[in-house]
Write a structure and sequence with these properties.
With 150 residues, the protein is of the alpha+beta class. It is built from 8 helices and 4 strands, in the order βααβααβααβαα. The chain has a 4-stranded antiparallel β-sheet with strand order 2-3-1-4. The protein is globular, with a radius of gyration of 15 Å. 30% of the residues are buried. The structure holds inosine-5'-diphosphate (IDP) and magnesium ion. Inosine-5'-diphosphate binds next to α4.
């Protein structure tokens, strides 16, 4: 079981696509361990995207992610990190497969709707940036048969 960090970026919120995108993840079978609404501040944007510091698009990327509120989620499931990357599609939506979120709903790399952690190390680092450990729900403690039977 893995957890991964997902962000529904400002364009997803502004275009009214949060429900649609969340549905894709729910239908795939991910469990939601945490979810919140926030406006990413500049300092957090710099930390989250630290690996891109110095790249030509960095300034534009920080402006984009801080431009309006986002929904941040911790999703879990078997191989959740790779599975979520496949569900969102390639970084540039122009190349993303139909059936992926970016392939179905986006056209520009600078407005690609959704973030998903790209490795176990990134997922652990990014989850810590956005969630306190106690914010994340421990699904293994749920014994209600409505949740797991069938
Ligand atoms: P990822 O989101 O698929 O992991 P990364 O390479 O980590 O892609 O880049 C982070 C984000 O930076 C992308 O999702 C996209 O919003 C933005 N980005 C990446 N490359 C470019 C670019 O060439 N121009 C503008 N924005 C870019
Ligand atoms: Mg990335």
């Amino acid at each position: 079981m893995e957890r991964t960090l997902i962000i529904l970026k400002p364009d997803a919120v502004q275009r009214g696509l949060c429900g649609t995108i969340l549905s894709r993840f729910e239908q795939r079978g991910f469990r939601i361990a945490g979810m919140k609404w926030l406006k990413v501040q500049e300092v957090l944007a710099h930390e989250h995207y630290a690996e891109h510091k110095g790249k030509p698009f960095f300034k534009e990327l920080v402006a984009y992610i801080t431009s309006a509120p986002v929904i941040v989620m911790a999703l879990e499931g078997p191989s959740a990190i790779a599975a979520a990357r496949a569900t969102i599609g390639t970084t540039n939506p122009r190349d993303a497969s139909p059936g992926s979120i970016r392939g179905d709903f986006a056209l520009e790399v600078g407005r690609n709707l959704v973030h998903a952690s790209d490795s176990l190390a990134s997922a652990e680092r990014e989850l810590r940036l956005f969630f306190a450990k106690e914010d994340l729900f421990d699904w293994d403690r749920v014994t209600d048969p409505w949740v797991f039977s069938g």
